[in-house]
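thread from #wetlab-drylab

HS: before we spend reagent money on co-crystallization trials with (2S)-2,3-dihydroxy-3-methylbutanoic acid, can we at least see a predicted complex? here's what I'd submit
DV: go for it
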Amino acid sequence: MREPVRVGVVGCGFFARNHIQSWLDLSGQGAKLVAVCDSDRSRADKCAAEFGIGVAYGDIETMLSDAKIDLVDIVTQVGSHRPLVESAINCGVAAIVQKPFGLSLEDCRAMTDHADARDTLLSVHENFRFQRPSRLIQSALENGLIGQPNWGRIAFRTGYDVFTGQPYLRDEPRFVVMDLGVHVLDLARYFFGEVNWISAELQTRLDGVQGEDTATMLLRHKSGAVSVVECTYASFQDPDPFPATLIEIEGSKGGLRLDSDLCLTISGPEGATRSSADTNSRAWGEKPWHVVQDSVYQACAHFLEGFRSGIPAETSAADNLKTFALCEAAYTSAATHAAVKPDY
Ligand code: NAD
Ligand code: 89V
């Protein structure tokens, strides 16, 4: 009987409860959530009490040394990612860090190199590719149902009030590309492969927001495919598709589209099929977040399996560097109004 993997979660804020619930659900698959940590100790204590977790800490160093952690899951805002990752890696503890990976490509490379030098697994919790719709679409592509994908549109367009749950986003100097662009650009890589050129135009259309709230991006992939990748929190429509990502992909012998009701239509030489891409696999899931919440569980299960097998995650640090490089290239393109080759 294998020993359970001792997991510690750092960060007990808005989104962490989805990670905590996921790790608790994975106790049947060999995970043991033994501790939570938050620099606001009262938050850690409240979380530990609410979810029945053994111990709460106010700092990662104490947790790592005291609780014999095997795998740390960092669910804090981006400014704290690098010091927290470095604390874990310095202790030889495998780490998962939430998106966005870091504050800059240099930051992300430094963390990746540090983990490699210490032969310690470092993954990024980028979960849009783990959503059920994304997996179903990738499966259709892998099975050649539409032939060779050669054009696509990936759109996360909403007027959802993200600021109530995540007020700090109003003040981010680099906002929507780092909050949503990381997700939709990762999907573009996932569906169409690596990127030769990216062009981007950014806008700030909402009042009281420091950074850009709208990104419209055009990608040319190494395969020759072209994708249009969009994200905004300034889109007012009814019904609002939040948090669905609307996807259209055309190929050499067919096409597919994912609509706001999560209906997936796949059209090929033999006609069209329609199916629901919805899911609510988690008892603790609540609409409209349920597909996102399921993806958190699926991603954590993937990271747990990778930890046990020693196999790097799909969204390993090394892989997510490429998505992050696309984000940086988008900012460069928007500043120069020219196509940019991502730095990877
Ligand atoms: P939050 O600010 O609500 O919570 C972060 C918590 O971390 C706070 O309680 C804070 O006290 C704590 N913290 C900060 N620095 C710390 C440190 N050095 N040590 C210990 N604790 C520390 O943030 P949030 O909205 O929960 O977002 C956290 C991360 O999750 C962000 O990177 C965000 O982009 C990401 N996120 C991802 C998804 C998704 O995967 N779909 C959704 C929402 C947020
Ligand atoms: O996924 C995220 O990072 C959040 C969202 C609201 C899109 O879930 O900001």
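DV: The longest helix spans residues 290-309.
HS: ok that's useful, forwarding to the group
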